[in-house]
Write a sequence for this structure.
């Protein structure tokens, strides 16, 4: 597998992002970057997974308040994004490989007793990890995410995004994030989202992600995701939905989670008012407070 690695100077002086880099390697020698903030011996660890086409920069507003609440916070860059290695061939990226790469990183860091938060592809990957390793997680929070099997239409908004992602000559990552927010981002923040991608050759993972979402019942990921749902339908640890009010991509997905995951029963599910698809960017501090409060309220219920 041929890999690209974004030069370090691309990540210098990014607004609001001064976290020291940390790295582990997957079983097939791909280097994965992660942010690791807060005390290593904290009683609670929060795992934050980003989606498409963002990177751990998306969590810069959430990490400090979660650390201030006393938690260790881990925010990896998915393979193909951020400071993580970027395979150069589209065929190197599959849904299963992303699940495996991410679990390799989580396991190499040595995480256990985690609170997981995921959005967008962070949910598509993270919910697979929760389903396959439920004993390693204490609780789950999902915002603007789901675990699709291809048995129902993904909706017009997603299909339009999928078409655009494949047809545009240049994938304008920073502007895509901006369009997915309810607020307009400043030029320097848009540039920070572009930082991991010096040119189009670094974007093969970002280009491929929209094609990996199961949109038909016979998709290669459909059966593994159905199996994951069987596990999630037995997951009775605390499970919270914290969706925004302005996301056309995932609107309504929280209802399906609440109907199918036992751990959602009786939880104070939140609606983040004024948040777009990337609610971490629009309402990061508020979302971090929801997670911290949920962790405090369920500390005795989550072994």
């Amino acid at each position: 597998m041929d890999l690209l690695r974004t030069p370090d100077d691309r990540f210098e002086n990014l607004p609001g992002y001064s976290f020291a880099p940390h790295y582990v390697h997957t079983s097939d020698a791909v280097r994965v970057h992660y942010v690791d903030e807060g005390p290593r011996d904290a009683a609670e660890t929060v795992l934050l997974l980003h989606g498409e086409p963002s990177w751990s920069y998306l969590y810069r507003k959430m990490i400090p308040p979660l650390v201030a609440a006393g938690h260790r916070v881990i925010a990896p860059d998915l393979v193909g994004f951020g400071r993580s290695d970027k395979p150069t061939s589209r065929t190197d990226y599959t849904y299963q490989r992303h699940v495996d790469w991410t679990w390799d990183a989580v396991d190499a860091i040595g995480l256990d007793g985690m609170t997981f938060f995921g959005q967008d592809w962070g949910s598509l990957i993270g919910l697979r990890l929760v389903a396959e390793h439920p004993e390693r997680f204490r609780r789950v929070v999902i915002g603007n995410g789901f675990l699709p099997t291809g048995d129902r239409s993904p909706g017009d908004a997603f299909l339009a995004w999928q078409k655009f992602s494949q047809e545009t000559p240049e994938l304008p990552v920073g502007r895509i994030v901006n369009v997915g927010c309810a607020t307009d981002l400043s030029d320097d923040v848009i540039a920070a989202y572009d930082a991991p991608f010096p040119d189009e050759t670094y974007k093969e993972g970002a280009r491929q992600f929209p094609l990996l979402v199961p949109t038909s019942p016979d998709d290669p990921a459909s059966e593994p995701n159905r199996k994951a749902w069987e596990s999630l339908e037995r997951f009775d640890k605390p499970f919270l939905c914290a969706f925004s009010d302005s996301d056309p991509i995932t609107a309504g997905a929280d209802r399906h989670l609440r109907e199918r995951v036992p751990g959602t029963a009786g939880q104070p599910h939140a609606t983040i008012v004024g948040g777009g698809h990337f609610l971490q960017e629009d309402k990061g501090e508020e979302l971090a407070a929801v997670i911290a409060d949920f962790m405090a309220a369920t500390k005795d219920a989550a072994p």
Summary: The mean pLDDT is 96.
